[in-house]
Inverse folding.
């Protein structure tokens, strides 16, 4: 055991004792990104840190069959955090876990392991993967209805507005959990809010996103309302996005995406352009991972603020990837804004898939096409087709087909996760195709 790991473990044990922590939660996700939790008492913690804690993997979505059900969760002491939404008395802390087999091998169904493989591959190439997410969510009066708390719009603020108070309390809560927030505001739709987290390495940010989603819901529950990350809960309104601001740093902390002499005026380096070309080339293949539900494709429609077109632009928000220009000339601000993902994804798998696509663009030496300057939503379908602009998958079924044929996604996620996603998502799509919706009843029943 390394001295660094030993120091981390000793810090955890000492903090638990000094702060009077009575429960230590072990966190991990199933393949679809649902948070799974079980708790240990302080007396069991030292053994758990060195030997892990066993559990029944057959009870977790996408993990093990019954005949191979035993899994072991090894808590990562670097992720130790006291949960600020729990009472200080009899406190509760959490650690994220790596899942292994009983033989000590990495479990092939562990989403965190899939992201770690991509991070390690990037490091072998001399890169650190960084991401700053912008996350949108809705507040509703309760879990049973779709009644929003307010009717405000973009950047609106009203005295004593319930949503603003909730957003403020959420920022304070997640910062107490060690997650820095850059800014927050009301979004365009009624009772829709947006927070942007300060960039971090991909693995740390995936952990932070899981913590953030739970914190948002816990704060909402404390205010007797309900928070939803559903991609498109309200008809006729924009949906919830998870914009990913992506960048690569070298091992010394320099932003590799920045080039002040870039002839396109975007201040993008050759590395950034090849990474961006990879994001565009493989977008149809990773969309199932970044947008994994039937409802996700109700957001990715023409006329909404979400992208449809596999293009890039300097400012055009109709494009899949945008190059923000908030701080021209500042090297550490160079990044790519991938606008298609939604916050219902599994962040470990989404980050793994997206960064694998970008890294493939670098390794393949892909050439980047010129940016799109026109408003694509003002063009009809024939004009878009004439320009050779491709579309993202328009349904879960199309996304499954593109994913299933992807060698890159199979290699990135591993056979276990890849096959589970194809099988489970195809079953979801077939169930949806058999369903009769209220839209069909309202439109056809009385006429046919």
């Amino acid at each position: 055991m390394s001295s660094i790991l030993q120091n981390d473990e000793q810090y955890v044990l000492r903090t638990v004792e000094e702060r009077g922590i009575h429960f230590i939660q072990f966190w991990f996700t199933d393949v679809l990104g649902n948070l799974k939790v079980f708790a240990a008492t302080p007396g069991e913690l030292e053994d758990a840190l060195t030997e892990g804690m066993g559990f029944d993997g057959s009870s977790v979505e996408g993990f093990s069959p019954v005949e191979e059900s035993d899994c072991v969760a090894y808590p990562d002491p670097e992720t130790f955090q006291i949960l600020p939404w729990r009472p200080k008395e009899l406190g509760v802390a959490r650690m994220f876990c790596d899942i292994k087999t009983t033989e000590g091998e990495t479990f092939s169904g562990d989403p965190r392991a899939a992201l770690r493989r991509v991070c390690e591959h990037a490091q072998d190439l001399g890169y650190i993967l960084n991401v700053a997410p912008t996350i949108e969510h809705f507040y509703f009066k309760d879990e049973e209805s779709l009644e929003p708390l307010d009717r405000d719009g973009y950047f609106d603020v009203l005295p004593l507005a319930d949503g603003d108070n909730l957003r403020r309390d959420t920022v304070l809560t997640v910062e107490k959990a060690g997650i820095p927030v850059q800014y927050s505001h009301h979004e365009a739709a009624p009772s829709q809010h947006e927070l942007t987290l300060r960039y971090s390495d991909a693995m740390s940010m995936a952990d932070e996103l899981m913590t953030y989603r739970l914190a948002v819901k816990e704060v909402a529950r404390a205010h007797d309302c309900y928070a939803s990350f559903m991609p498109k809960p309200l008809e006729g309104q924009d949906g919830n996005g998870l914009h990913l601001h992506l960048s690569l740093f070298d091992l010394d902390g320099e932003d590799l995406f920045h080039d002040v002499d870039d002839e396109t005026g975007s201040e993008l380096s050759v590395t950034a352009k090849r990474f961006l070309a990879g994001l565009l080339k493989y977008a149809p293949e990773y969309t199932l991972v970044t947008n994994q539900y039937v409802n996700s494709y109700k957001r990715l429609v023409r006329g909404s603020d979400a992208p449809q077109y596999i293009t890039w632009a300097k400012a055009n928000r109709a494009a899949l990837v945008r190059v923000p220009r908030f701080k021209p000339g500042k090297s550490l601000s160079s990044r790519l804004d991938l606008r298609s993902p939604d916050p219902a994804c599994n962040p470990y798998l989404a980050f793994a898939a997206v960064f694998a696509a970008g890294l493939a663009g670098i390794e393949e030496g892909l050439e980047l096409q010129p940016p799109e300057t026109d408003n694509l939503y003002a063009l009809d379908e024939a004009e878009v087709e004439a320009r050779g602009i491709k579309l993202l998958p328009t349904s879960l079924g199309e996304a499954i087909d593109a994913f299933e044929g992807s060698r890159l996604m199979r290699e990135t996620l591993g056979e276990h996760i890849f096959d589970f996603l194809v099988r489970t998502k195809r079953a979801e799509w077939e169930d949806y195709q058999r369903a009769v919706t209220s839209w069909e009843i309202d439109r056809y029943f009385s006429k046919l």
Notes: The chain has two domains: 3-106, 116-440. The radius of gyration is 22 Å. The first strand starts at residue 21 and ends at 29.
